[in-house]
Specification:
Number of helices: 12
Strand order of the largest sheet: 4-5-10-8-9
Order of helices and strands: EHEHEEEHHHHHEEHHEEEEEEEEHHH
Number of strands: 15
CATH superfamily of one domain: CO dehydrogenase flavoprotein, C-terminal domain
Bound molecules: flavin-adenine dinucleotide
């Protein structure tokens, strides 16, 4: 591990200052469940690690503007336990699938949103794009867990965040501060992720010296009715595992007919993949086995699988179907 300086700010302003000293590269440490692994393997080599875990303003969940304001440092455990989160079913479906007490008690919401890809080429030192001598190792190598959408450019990894699909479907916004001392912006989460063209670009719009302090989710009561949401993830293991594919749905149903729907796939593209095609297919219809299957079909119509991951097309199709049925309260046993 490359040596680094350690800083422990107690306020957002102090954190931003410590992250913006000219000539000093920094990394943000929250729960550390992933950052420590990245540091150990020299996959990130900051000159300073800024531990934000003890900044009070970034903790906890409170009601704000009809929705909920979630501090970036909220742990998965606290998210699961909060009565304010009880109507956000899609996030609970994700939490139910993270079956490791250590991760639940240490992992944070923003740590999940900013989690770097689990791509094995990246994790073995070949950069975000998994290149060697100018050639994509992913293209010709083992790409069974890689992207089936948005993979025509050099980035072929999949976005790792498990909460992002449900939060994007639920129209979440993130509060970003820095790099200037008073700089603050609220950004729709759907514009937070990018598909890099170079290894240096990263996977989000965050610039050096910026961090997420809060996530805001709108309330679940709308003029058209209550928002019904769900996430459906396909995991290989019963224990700690990353999904092979997932889909999140947020929809409003009136008199049995879908008025509005947002459908976002996870772990199938370098960014959380918003499927307007699937939404268009289900809006104006009742959710049934047939219409949900049609939405799943629409979602994967433009998939571009790589040499070893064609199976993920079927998983993505099924995730959309199952997430819709789950959101509509029609979950049944098999696929
Ligand atoms: C061995 C192991 C296996 C795991 N397996 C799984 C798994 O199978 N499934 C699963 O869902 N999770 C898994 N995790 C958990 C995973 O690390 C989670 O994504 C967790 O929520 C990350 O939160 P953290 O606070 O620990 O993040 P950290 O490790 O502290 O940070 C993660 C990344 O986010 C950045 N970051 C953190 N907070 C902010 C912020 N406020 N603003 C800007 N950037 C920020 C960091 O700089 C870093 O790049 C695993 C963890 C470990 C250690």
């Amino acid at each position: 591990m490359t040596p680094f300086e350690y800083a422990h700010p107690r306020s957002e302003a102090e954190a931003v200052e410590l992250m913006n000293e000219p000539g000093t590269s920094t990394a943000v440490l929250a729960g550390g469940t992933d950052l420590i692994r990245l540091l150990r393997r020299d996959l990130v080599t900051p000159q300073r690690v800024v531990n934000i875990k003890d900044i009070p303003s970034m903790q906890g969940i409170k009601p704000v503007d009809g929705g909920v304001m979630i501090g970036a440092l909220t742990t998965l455990e606290d998210l699961a336990a909060s009565p304010l989160m009880s109507e956000y079913h899609s996030l609970h479906h994700v939490l139910d699938g993270i079956r490791a007490i250590q991760i639940q008690s240490s992992g944070t919401v923003a740590g999940d949103l900013c989690h770097l890809p689990n791509c094995w080429y990246f994790r073995n030192g070949y950069g975000l794009l998994g290149m060697e001598n100018g050639e994509s190792l992913v293209e010709t190598g083992d790409n069974r867990y890689h992207a089936i959408f948005g993979n025509r450019g050099p980035a072929k990894f999949v976005s790792a965040s498990r909460f992002a699909p449900g939060m994007i479907a639920g129209q979440a916004r993130v509060r970003v501060v820095g790099p200037k001392p008073d700089a603050e912006e609220w950004l729709p989460l759907e514009y937070f992720y990018i598909t890099p063209k170079t290894n240096a670009q990263g996977v989000t719009v965050l610039k050096p010296g910026q961090l997420i302090t809060h996530v805001w989710l709108p309330g679940t009561d709308t003029a058209q009715g209550k928002v019904q949401s769900s996430t459906y993830e396909v995991l290989q293991l019963e224990g700690l595992d990353w999904p092979l594919a997932s889909a999140a749905v947020s929809m409003v149903v009136q008199s049995g007919v879908v008025q509005d729907a947002r459908i976002v796939l996870g772990h199938v593209a370098p960014v959380p993949w918003i499927s307007h095609e699937a939404s268009r297919t289900i809006i104006g219809r009742r959710v049934t086995e047939e219409t949900a299957a049609a939405a799943g079909e629409a979602a994967v119509a433009s998939a571009t699988p790589l040499s070893n991951n064609g199976y993920k097309v079927q998983l993505a199709r099924t995730c959309v179907k199952r997430a819709l049925l789950r959101a509509a309260g029609q979950e049944t046993g098999g696929l």
